[in-house]
Structures are given as structure tokens and as C-alpha cells.
Amino acid sequence: MAIDTEKNSYTIIFAIVMVLVVGSILAGLASGLKPLVDANKRFEKQQNILYAMGINANEGTSDVAFISTDKVEEEFTNTITKQYVIEGSKIDSLNSEAYLIDIKKEETKAKDPNYTRKLPLFKGIKDGQPIYVIPIRGKGLWDAIWGFVAVDKAMVVQGVFFDHAGETPGLGAEIKQRYFMDDFAGEHIFGDADAFKGITVAKGNADPKNERKTDNAVDAIAGATITGDGVTAMIKKDLKMYVPYFKTLK
Question: What is the pTM of this model?
């Protein structure tokens, strides 16, 4: 018997079957690709942490190039000697996957006064000296901004890496460019009398060569005031939480 393709019932049944078939195919693809997606996310975090430490594949004076994915895991394992998880006064130094902690989720959970936020911290060795890398996250003009700040035990910045979800190209998006990130190297987190000050992305800082390293400030990006304020805020907000730990190192 011939199927009447003109009936509404045929159209509805055909649509349902196609939805089920396509849905099953997409679900299968998502399940099959999940290990690859998870691995890429892991590699990206490792690349970013290493970049903040100054371990990268940069060749020119302005490029931003990461350790390749086929080498980054080995480099990360060899460089990062310890991964800490700080929870209040408790410090877990035996966690080998602290870098996988989602600091966005931790910040959300911390809104509950009964929850103790987990703070990941990574200790590496570069040129024979210990370097500590701190993850940070904040809000730019349009969406989330985040990064990693590498410091020595006195919380003097050794390097940074910043990224964003949707800042304006040519303006706020410039936070991930070399000329901006490189300015942070050597900047002090503490001010006078060993008081925490953070680093301000300052409009009119009048230090284009960034020669003043104890002023707790770097020059802002022209036309990107709100994004710069977001970088300032996330540095001060997140680095401050680690100050009690660093004071134990002195």
C-alpha cells in the first residue's frame, strides 16, 4: 500500500523520526568526542599556567605562542613540582589535579557562608627558583575575563597570562597581547609597610616604559577603561585571598 505523503500525520511522524535520529547521532558524537574535549581543556590550562611562568614558544617581540599540545603535559609535569589546594587554614599539597578546579564554580559556592572555598595554587621551579602561579577570574566590559599570575614568595610578579570571553577587538581584547601582559613582570603586590595593594591598571599612569615597579600600577589600554578596571578588580579580589599563605613563606 502506498504511503500518502500529503497527510499531516505523515509530516509529523517524519519530523519525529528525524529528530530522534539526528538527536541520537549528535548524542553519540558528543559522547565520543568528550575525552578529546576534556583533554584539550586540560592542555589549555597547562599552557596558560606555563605561559604565566614565562615558559612558552614565543619567538618574536609581540607574538603569544604556547607550548604545543604534544609537549605541554610533559613540560607541565616537569615544571610544576606541587599543586596546592588551600581551604581556610588547611593546605593540601598532595593534590595532583588542583589545576582542574573550576574557580568560577568555587566562587559561586562560596556565596554560602557555610562553604569554605577551595583555592588552587601551583608551585613550579624556573631558573632554580620557586615560582607560584595563582588563577584569577573577573568581569570585563561584556563578559568574563580570567588569567594566571606568577609570583615569587614575596609576591613580586614574574609573569601573567590574561584571556577573555568577549571583550571588544582592538580595545579590551588587548589584555591578552604581549605589550600589555609583559608590563606586569616585576610589579609588586604589596605596598608600604607590607600592606596588600594589588596592581591597578591606571589611566594616566604616565609610565609608558613601565620602569616604576613599586607603584602597584601599570598603564591602561586606551579606550578600554572598563576592561582595565575589571583586570584591576580581579587581581585585587583573588590575589588577596592568598596573602595569608604567602606570609607564612617569609
Answer: 0.84
In a 13 Å sphere around the CA of 71, the CA atoms on its Cβ side amount to 7
Q: Where are the alpha helices (DSSP H) in 64-199?
A: 69-79, 103-109, 178-181
Q: Are strands 217-219 and 200-202 parallel, antiparallel or unpaired?
A: parallel
In angstroms, the Cα distances linking 24 to 15, 28, 38 are 14, 6, 21
Q: Could you read off the pLDDT of 99-129 as tens digits, one per residue?
A: 889 999 999 999 999 999 999 999 999 889 9
Cell numbers 604589596 correspond to what residue? 190
HEC assignment per residue over 176-190: HCHHHHHHHCCCECE
CA angle 82, 88, 140 (to 5 degrees): 80
Q: Which residues contact 199 (CB under 8 A, 6 or more apart)?
A: 157, 184, 187, 189, 216, 217, 218, 232, 235, 236
Closest CA to 46 of 113, 109, 133: 133
Torsion angle of alpha carbons 16, 18, 21, 24, nearest 10°?
A: -70
